[in-house]
Amino acid sequence: MEPQIPKPQHKRIRREKKTIEHMVELYCKDHHGTHGEICRECREFKEYAFLRLDKCPFQEKKSTCGKCLVHCYRPDMKEKVKIVMRYSGPRMLLHHPSLALHHVWDGRRKPPTLGKKAA
Ligand SMILES: [Zn+2]
After folding, report:
1. How far is the CA of 84 from the centre of ligand 1 (A)?
2. In sequence order, what are the residues at sequence separation of 6 or more whose Cβ sits closer than 8 angstroms to the Cβ of residue 55?
3. Which of 23, 46, 51, 80 is 20 to 30 Å from 30 at the Cα level?
């Protein structure tokens, strides 16, 4: 039987967070002229994205957020994530190739459904 110890965060989620963090940094640096530390708006966005990951019902089974069938982002945050991904996505290959490749692989996973909701 599985022991009832609090599970450390799955590495899939940790990696997703790292990917988002780098993407936000790239975006903020080039759009808001920050160096090293991201601006308040971007920090709020990052924290929001992290929170969504913490609460993601799929955890290590998740596809990438862009492919997910459950739209858990607030509309304004969803706009922001689209803009950030569009800008930083291709640049991730240059700056953080291994994270970028993982993200592509993760995105090829078929997005799971919650089951309860019949499509
Ligand atoms: Zn910013």
Report:
1. 10
2. 72
3. 51
